[in-house]
Amino acid sequence: MIDHIRGKVSYKEPNLVVIECGGVGYACRTSLQTASSVGGADTEAMLYTRLAVREDEIALYGFSSRSERSCYDQLTGVTGVGPKAALAILSDITPDRFALSVAAGDYKAFTKVKGIGTKTAQRIVLELKDKVMKSAEVSGMPASAPVTVGTGNTEEAMAALLVLGYSQSEAAAALSTLEPSLPSSELIRLSLMQLGRNLK
Question: Whole-angstrom Cα distance, residue 11 to residue 13?
Fold first, then answer.
């Protein structure tokens, strides 16, 4: 419904940024990382948004990047993880680290977030990892994709990019230009740089 908002920052606090657009102030709940990336009052800013409609409230959530918004979507799709918990996780964990933790099955990375217990952390990893793998099996690797996901590091990087919301063809194209022997974290970082350049 509302993909993004661009305008001047009229107010900011750790988990809230108000952006004025067309004379209307949109209060966007944010992660600490997004809030810190936004400038002070009267500076220009753009946030990618997600509108949540519930029986008792309507809330707008803002993110500094599409990848962070994708992580939010993934997290709120997990049983027992609501918007508040998702923002808490994204306040402590960057999108690339989030993707790597899920792909590697590292649930302990999520238990370091205040309010996230062991059971919830394990559920996040299990539900998202299964979803990513199932998506990869259903879509299949495009015939034109020049990358072979045979190594463990490349497989982890591929899964992480899928978690971040990129299509399998986009991820495959980015990974095909990289050395498969690189650590999975480096493959993810370099792939994100390439994919970011392609969006500009």
Answer: 7
Torsion angle of the four alpha carbons 130, 132, 137, 141, in this order, in degrees rounded to the nearest 10? -160
The domain in which residue 157 lies consists of: 139-199
Measured CA to CA, the distance from residue 170 to residue 184 in angstroms comes to 17
CB burial string 60-90: b at 16+ within 10 A, e below: bbbbbbbbbbbbbebbbebeebebebbbbbb
Last residue of a domain, one of 14, 40, 63: 63
pTM: 0.69
Whether 199 has a pLDDT exceeding 80, the answer reads: no
Identity of the amino acid at 96: D
Measured between alpha carbons, how far is 198 from 191 in angstroms, rounded to an integer?
A: 11
pLDDT of residue 182: 87
- The answer to whether the Cα torsion of 61, 100, 81, 165 is positive or negative is positive
pLDDT tens-digit readout, 149-180:
445 788 888 888 887 878 777 887 888 788 88
Helix, strand, coil share (%) of the chain residues, nearest 5: 50, 20, 30
Q: Do 130 and 147 have their domain in common?
A: no
Q: What is the CATH number of the domain that holds 59?
A: 2.40.50.140
Q: Let me know whether 145 and 195 are in one domain.
A: yes
Q: Reply yes or no on whether the pLDDT at 88 is more than 90.
A: yes
